[in-house]
Each structure stands twice: as structure tokens, then as C-alpha cells.
Amino acid sequence: MNLARQIELYLPRQLLELVQDISRQAAKQKQRVYLVGGVVRDLFLGYPNFDLDLVVEGDAVKLAQQVAENNQSKLLAHRRFGTAKLRYENFTLDLATARKETYAKPGALPTVTPGTLKGDLLRRDFSINAMAISLASNDYGELVDPHQGKNDLEHRLIRILHPGSFSDDATRILRAVRYEQRLGFELEAQTAQLLKRDIPMLNTISGDRIRHELELIFKEKQPELAVRRLAELGVLQRISPLLKGDGWIAEKFDRARRLKKSTQLPSLYFCLLIYSFSEKGIEQFLAHLNISAKLSRAMRDTLRLKTKLPFLDKPSLKPSEIYYLLREYEPVAIQANAIASDSSMIHRHLQLFLTKLRYVRTSFDGEELKRLGFSAGPEMGKVLQALHKAKLDGEVSTRADEKKLALSLAPKLKWQRR
Ligand code: ATP
Ligand code: MG
Question: What gap in Å lies between CA 373 and CA 188, rounded to an integer?
């Protein structure tokens, strides 16, 4: 099957020109080069995916150097791994020397040796990710599909390439579910069976790798689908017995998405994911997954604040009271509680803090108070705090109001105009 025409229609013009240039340079160097992985899958599905992965039978770094020289793209080479990254306009291309991987033991990082395209495809996770398209001049556009990936795409199936796949690398358990749910596919029957059998193999991979897979899931459009499926398969419970993937999570994730800009969304998902944990239970989870200090703080804050929510369920709270209750918590933790709480009053108070109160500043700062005749020290600190509180509660609004209040608070200080 030849896909030259499809590539032409699928790739943006600049990227197509670059791919064609790579093809020409490879021919000159007598190397064979292929498009592989996600882009081939997504080309068939008609989904845009312009993070191109290329495999070179030969020397990817040498080819990338020539291409970079030719069209002034930026080159980042890892000679030791035989890989190179090209940046051209807004596009990045990864070039890798074809390689074979063998696993000394389950979960170990693989031993890598140079190899052929076929060997390179065999080490991949699923048949739909194990297709390639030749860019060699004599068979440009030819599909290479030794594992019937195209057939599985047509039948909407996620299939591993050999029965030892999940135990070689248990991150594939999480990857399988991520693709299944993203694409609305199904696990092929034997793959599903082997996945269930190999769930205990999750214990052979590091917490870092599990966290990374969760992060990838949290970048999906609807991560709750994968989370629910992982729970259904018993995978989530293996990561932590405290994790749940029920309808509650689905509803809250959906709500999070409607409230939050995408940059902080993954952190928010993490905070919601552990919402049912105890403060003690979370520690083991944070350590196991080696969660960053900042995110750990947000996740701990989420649970700490959860226990304080009843204080926020009162209609008579002043803005300054809300502020003092919440100022020590990470904003993401506050957001998580706003989403999790069923009380509209609590929700309103938390949102008031997030959208307004935390940004309230007095017009006067220490320097300006000094110019009014105040001397630095604890006294001035108290005045500033009182100004801030009055501003939060709407008792002062203009600069003149603040000045009047400041002076009234320190009648014994002599005010000198400069
Ligand atoms: P997407 O980025 O859309 O999730 P992708 O196919 O580009 O999909 P990447 O995670 O970027 O996925 O990986 C690139 C390719 O590397 C995959 O298509 C797959 O063939 C291979 N791959 C990635 N991780 C593994 C793994 N754990 N085991 C085997 N192959 C893998
Ligand atoms: Mg990719």
C-alpha cells in the first residue's frame, strides 16, 4: 500500500518539504528512513499529529546533521543514544537510529543495540503504534506493517505484539488503557487477558514511571475515561489501594476542565484524584510516585483544607475572615476543594478568595507610610495589616480613605508633610 498521496494531504506544507528533504538527504547518504509510530496511526485516523518520529536504518545523528545544515533547523543530538531532535519553524522531529531492545529482567530499562526497522517495530507497545511509512526514494510512501496494525485500526483494537509485552514493561498497561479510551477502541481479547494477568508486574516499575504515565493520562481530553477504566480493570488499586475511579471522579474532572485553564489542570486532577485519602494515606502515595515538592504541597493542602471546610459554610463570614482562613493554602488546593464541595456557599467563598481576595492590595505600602511620617517597625506592620483588612472588607476603597484610617490608627505619631 502506498501512502505518498495521503502524506501530501496530511502534513502542513513546510513539514512536508522538510520530510521530502530528509528523504533526499537519506538517499545521498545511502540510509533508509521511515516515519513511525503515532503519526502513521493518526494519519490513518485523520487526526492531526505533527510530532514526527522517524527511524533511520543506519545513523540518525549523521542524517540529522546534514538536514540541519541544509535548511537551518535547530539540532539537538544524543550521540550515545543515536538519536537527534530537529526543530524547524514550529515543528519538532525526532530521529532515532533503528534499534533492538532486550530486557535483562521485567521492568528493567532495556539494553539497546543497533538494528533494523523490523526489529525496531517489534519492541513497540501496540500494533497500531508499530507501523512505518518508508521515505526512501525507491519506495517512498510504502506502508510497513508487520504486525497488522492497519487491520487493528479498522477493527478498533489495542493489541500487544507478544505475550511477554506487559511484563517486559508494565507501563504499557497504563498506555493500553490511555489509547483505548482516547480512541474509543477496545483491548483485543488476549491482550485484555494478559493485561489482567500482569497487573502485579506494576510492582516492577519505578514510581517515577507510573507517575509519568498518569501525567500523560492527565493530558488527555477526558482523563476520567481512562481513570474509570483503570479502576474497572483493578489497575488503579494496584497503584494505591486508596485510589478510586468512580463516577464522583468523572464528574469532578469534568467540572475541573470547565473551570480551569489547561496549564494547571494536571495538578488539579492529581488533587481531585486523592480527595478521598486520609492525611496519613497521602504520604505513602506521594513518596511512592516521587511527586514534586510543589505538587505534594498542593495535594497535602487539599486534604488539610478539606477538614476546614465547615468553617466556610457560614453566611455571615466577612471577606477578611475568608482571607485569613485560606491564605496559607496553595491555590490549586483551594480550587480542588471548590470543585469537590457540594455546598454552594463553600464554593462561593472559595471562589471569592481565588478570584478577588487574594489579589487585594493596599494603596499604601511601607515606603509610603514612612513618607507620611510613620517609622518602620512592628507598629507600622500593624497599621498595614489593618489597612489590608479594611480594604478586604470594603471599609476603605480610595487612597484618601486609607490615609485617613492610617493616621487615625496612630494618633500619637506626629504626621509631617514633606
Ligand atoms: P501520542 O504521543 O499521541 O500519545 P505516540 O505514538 O506518539 O502517541 P509516544 O509516547 O510519543 O506515543 O511514543 C512514540 C512511539 O514510541 C509510540 O508510538 C510507540 O511505538 C513507542 N513507545 C512509547 N512508549 C513505549 C513503551 N513503553 N513500550 C514500547 N513502545 C513504546
Ligand atoms: Mg508522540
Answer: 78
Find the angle CA(62)-CA(23)-CA(46) to the nearest 5 degrees: 120
Name the nearest CA neighbour of 330 among 277, 248, 264. 264
Task: Give the atom of ligand 1 at the shortest distance from the alpha carbon of 178.
Answer: 4
C-alpha 20 – ligand 1 centre gap (Å) = 23
Q: How far is CA 8 from CA 3, 5, 11, in A?
A: 9, 5, 6
Contacts of 287 (CB under 8 A, 6+ apart): 207
Task: Give the residue, out of 129, 153, 208, with the most ligand 1 atoms within 8 A of its beta carbon, to mutate for a pocket test.
Answer: 129
Residue 249: what residue type?
I
Q: Is 125 in the pocket of ligand 1 (CB under 6 A)?
A: yes
The closest-lying atom of ligand 1 relative to the alpha carbon of residue 42 is 3
| Mean pLDDT of the residues in the chain | 91
Give the residue among 104, 98, 26, 113 at the shortest CA–CA distance from 67. 26
What confidence tens digit (pLDDT) does each residue in 191-247 have? 999 999 999 999 999 999 999 999 999 999 999 999 999 999 999 999 999 998 888
For 103-121, write each residue's pLDDT tens digit: 777 777 767 677 899 999 9
User: Whole-model pTM above 0.85?
Assistant: yes
